[in-house]
Amino acid sequence: MFKSLFEAAQNSTFKSPFTSANCQAASAPAPAPALLPSANDGAARQLSPNHNFAAAAAAVQGDSCEFGSNHYFVLCGLGGIISCGTTHTMVVPLDLVKCRLQVDPAKYKSVVNGFRVSLAEEGVRGLAKGWAPTFIGYSMQGLCKFGLYEVFKVMYANAIGEENAFLYRTGLYLAASASAEFFADIALAPMEAAKVKIQTTPGFAKTLREALPKMTAQEGISAFYKGLVPLWMRQIPYTMMKFACFERTLELLYKYVVPKPRADCSKGEQLIVTFAAGYIAGVFCAIVSHPADTVVSKLNQAKGASALDVAKQLGWAGLWGGLMPRIVMIGTLTAAQWFIYDAVKVFLRMPRPPPPEMPESLKKKLGVTGEQ
Q1: Helix (H) and strand (E) counts for the chain?
Q2: Is the dihedral of CA 40, 46, 50, 56 positive or negative?
Q3: Nearest to 261, CA basis, from 28, 41, 15, 94
Q4: Separation of alpha carbons 235 and 59, rounded Å
Q5: Name one GO cellular component term (predicted).
Q6: Is residue 53 part of a domain?
Q7: Which of these, 299, 305, 281, 175, lies nearest to 230 by C-alpha position?
Q8: Which of 94, 151, 255, 287 is packed most tightly, with the most Cβ within 10 A?
């Protein structure tokens, strides 16, 4: 199925996010496919619809691959692995305390108290519990999240056409990110279940190798996927906000805040803007996905309970337990993920298109003369 998605995206007539160069005589202007850019910005390129010319232009400008090619999508997936796997692993101690606040608020009364109690009971090494399933699970999730987001964005833009892709780009970001996260959570669910079990059930297991056979023996394969639906409820809204808010915030920052045009910014300056847009998006991500996150934490601790049972037991106030540490964690984590993802693109010399511009055909229809 994924192979067909890649092929469809690669063959899309709208796969280039750039206005095409007019390589013909003035009397025969070339069409201008102007699809939305990738999630990160960079120097603009002008490509013709001709595939060979596009590849040549990429080579001349030093890009390691052509935008929308299979090679490009694979590298996006690699960037997702590096971005998500490393950042989630770095915040394991905070995630551990957050999960314990959610499932046992009587014992862990605050973030500071949670760290104090955890250190007293298990020492410094105890704060790293769950690092292995975190690294493995979120690396797999990052592969699907970022890689498939780029694929679905190209596919959906092809389906609605370049003008609608610009006019309804927020909806396009939301649809592409939701589709990507659907598959990403299937990859994440087993490791997320093991992580929460290790972190929140005292004496259950200290390592992933110890936890997996115990979980299988107690509940079978369902132990790893019983939290999938609430995981979708948590991660899909989170990812929709993460990508759509980031993309639109990036546009606004370059339009109203950054004191010079994006094309005049150095790569370092562009990465700083990426980090700022990522942090703003992360704050909103944490808020919209927190109730479901609380249910996931409690569900993976409670044997035989359903998501609805857990939600009723927690009540409205209980669903928001641990929100502040999660805002700090997710805000920092989301900003770091976008920064690393964009830095990987720079390092690998991948195409980094600018924010979207209104297609010439739409400008003519609307009578627009200036830049939008």
Answers
A1: 15, 0
A2: negative
A3: 41
A4: 38
A5: mitochondrial inner membrane
A6: no
A7: 299
A8: 151
Asked whether residue 58 is domain-assigned, the answer is no
Q: In a 3-state reduction of DSSP, which class is residue 254?
A: helix
Angle CA 137–323–292, to nearest 5: 55
- Rounded CA-CA distance 190/63 in Å is 37
Tokens standing for residue 201: 């059930």
User: Does residue 220 sit within a domain?
Assistant: yes
First to last CA, the chain: 38
CATH of the domain at 117: 1.50.40.10
Element (H, E) at 332: helix 323-347
The pLDDT-based confidence of 300 (bands split at 50, 70, 90) is: low
Distance CA 247, CA 274 (A): 10
Specify the DSSP class assigned to residue 353: P
Q: Is the dihedral of CA 99, 101, 107, 113 positive or negative?
A: positive
Measured between alpha carbons, how far is 243 from 170 in angstroms, rounded to an integer? 9
CA-based radius of gyration for the chain: 22
Q: Whole-number mean pLDDT of the chain?
A: 81
Cα–Cα dist 164/156, whole Å: 10
Report the domain count for the chain: 1
Q: Dihedral of CA 291/292/294/298: which sign?
A: positive
The torsion of the CA quartet 43, 48, 52, 56, rounded to 10 degrees, works out to -30
- The structure tokens listed for 57 are 């232009």
Pull the structure tokens for residue 204.
């259950």
Other CB atoms closer than 10 Å to residue 248's CB: what's the count?
17
How far apart CA 222 and CA 63 sit, in angstroms, is 45
Please tell me what DSSP assigns to residue 64. S
Residue 297 to residue 294: CA distance in whole angstroms:
5
Would the CA dihedral through 209, 210, 216, 221 be positive or negative? negative
Reported as a single tens digit per residue, the pLDDT across 228-271 is 998 898 889 889 999 999 999 999 999 999 988 888 999 999 99
**Residue 277 CB neighbours (<10 A):** 27
* Tokens matching residue 301: 């601790």
The residue type found at 213 is P
pLDDT of residue 39: 46
Query: What distance in Å separates the CA atoms of residue 108 and residue 238, rounded to the nearest whole number?
Result: 26
Token look-up 């299937």 returns 186
Q: Which of 369, 368, 351 has its CA nearest to residue 60?
A: 351
